[in-house]
Amino acid sequence: MLAVLIGPGLWVKTVMNRYARPEDRYPQTGREVARQLLDANGLSRVKVEETNAGDHYDPIEKVVRLLPQHLGSGSLAAVTIAAHEVGHAVQDARNYPPLKWRTRLVRWLGPMEKIGAGILMSTPLVLALTRHPLAGLLTFAGGMLALGSGVVIHLVTLPTEFDASFKRAMPMLESESVLYRSDARHARKLLRAAAMTYVSASLMSLLNIARWWAILRR
What we know:
By secondary structure, this protein is mainly α. It has one domain. 72% of the residues lie in helices and 5% in strands. It contains nine helices and three strands. It has a three-stranded mixed sheet with strand order 1-3-2. α1 (2-18) runs antiparallel to α9 (184-217), α5 packs antiparallel against α8 (149-175) and α8 (149-175) runs antiparallel to α9 (184-217). The longest helix has 34 residues, at 184-217.
């Protein structure tokens, strides 16, 4: 069971690390590829910035944000991940409905995971103060529901991720002649890994719920 939950995450990391070298495989860096693809789609106002919070596109600020190892590297991983995030920017510009839904869900449910963890931590205290099992049970159930919001967000995200990878990023990489022909199949594997990041995150959310269940059963 544990292997099922952590396996996808390990696979994603393995794929990303495999294609992170050499860093000079391409003459362009991730930043430059992102800029080229954004401009080619008429998105010159969308910025490209560095982040330490994971590669992502911010639909509120209209910014493609890349990790340092992707922003300044010319590896296959860097240029492919840059294209994937530009894919989200194109979705935003084209008013792609699933991206809009995901953005709303993140804003509404995003804070709920932290709230859920806080509620679960308070369960033993509620039991001690009220001495009533029902109060503890209700607190526990509320915490679990709030914590489970992360699973919902990640699962709803999947169609958006696969669209960004295979209907946006891959066609852009090919039409703009960014990739070496021999790298196309490897880029597809990277784009699949980029999308599967959210499957991994969803499973890790389930693992976190299981961990809390084990703690509170003691």
